[in-house]
Amino acid sequence: MASNKEKRIARWYFGGLASAGAACCTHPLDLLKVHLQTQQEGKMTLLALTKNIVKKQGVLALYNGLSASLLRQLTYSTTRFALYEIAKQHVNADSFYKKVAIAAVSGAAGGFVGTPADMVNVRMQNDIKLPLEQRRNYKHAVDGLYRVYREEGVARLFSGASTATSRAVLMTIGQLSFYDQIKMMVLRTSWFKDNMTTHFLCSLMAGVTVVLMTQPVDVIKTRLMNAKPGEYKSILDCVKHTAKGGPLAFYKGVVPSGIRLLPATILLFIFYEKLREYFGYLPPDEIRKKIDGLR
After folding, report:
1. What is the pTM of this model?
2. DSSP label of 281
3. Quick one: which of 2, 36, 75, 212 could link to 253 by a disulfide (CB 3.0–4.6 Å)?
4. Cα torsion at 272, 273, 276, 277 (round to 10°)?
5. Listed residue (101, 83, 115, 90) closest to 15, CA to CA
């Protein structure tokens, strides 16, 4: 069973499903991260912010924008996982640098495809802290996409696409290539088997890598997507404005980001590995071996 499980191949859509499942579990932390990153003064702590939202809006307010978060994962993560897995099947990706290269290209494609849903996700999460007269009040993700298109134009849907793509490249390298490499290394030892304990350890290490790599880009991306038209002249202008708060301004929200990304990455790969184990398919050469073994 262990050998068959190890050789099973994930279907192209497993990454999107696993990411959506993880997003359902960690969405409140993602919302808190967005709120902290869009603060200009940086006075409110994570705990104070949580209490403030629950007190004013109720517990369900922590799930504001969930539909956009799910749409983002079903576009962004499905794309990056599908391209990564397909490329690995056609390229001898045993070396780490090949995994990184494949992950970078896959992440760039996924980041661009997921930008519109990501933008609506950020706006819906940030809406509840705005005064009533300034709220956008998107009914759901699709309504948000349509209203941005109708009111601000199609180009606005891809506002922040460059930073979203940059972050997606780093995210995919940190998650997919590091997870694969770490898993390959630990399975070569006699201490680990291809089981949930190994998946947990490898995904935890990949999650730490992701947090350190992506946080500065994530802050800039969030501010650009949440900005009103004309608030920032360019990405560089947003970077300069953020830098006025000092170097730590680029790591605003790092605590909820880490608290969210670590369990999100762990859940993502546990879900992904279970989908692969139970619903993945064997490559043709393994099927032939099974048939030969029955003869």
Report:
1. 0.81
2. B
3. 36
4. -150
5. 83
| Exposure b/e, 206-230, CB count within 10 A at least 16 = b | bbbbbbebbbbbbbbbbbbbbeeee
pLDDT in tens, 168-218: 999 999 999 999 999 999 999 989 999 999 999 999 999 999 998 888 888
pLDDT at 154: 93
Q: How far apart are CA 281 and CA 275, in angstroms?
A: 10
The amino acid at 22: A
Q: Is 122:150 a contact under the CB 8 Å cutoff? A: no
* Cβ atoms of 36 and 48 closer than 8 Å: no
Neighbouring-strand partners of residue 9:
281
Q: How far apart are CA 287 and CA 232, in angstroms?
A: 56
Give CA separation, 80 vs 31, 109, 171, 189, in Å.
23, 7, 10, 29
What's the rounded Cα separation, in Å, for the pair 68 and 276?
Answer: 26
Q: Are 286 and 19 in contact (CB under 8 A)?
A: no
Amino acid at 256: P
- Total length of the chain: 295
Sequence-distant (≥ 6) Cβ neighbours of residue 33 within 8 angstroms: 253, 256, 257, 260
pLDDT of residue 292: 62
Look-up of token digits 């990501």: 118
Domains plus CATH for the chain?
A: 2-289 (1.50.40.10)
169 and 107 in contact (C-beta within 8 Å)? Answer: yes
Alpha-carbon distance 68 to 78, whole Å?
Answer: 15
DSSP-derived secondary structure letter, 136: -
Residue 225, pLDDT score: 78
Rounded to the nearest 5°, which phi and psi values hold at 65? 90, 10
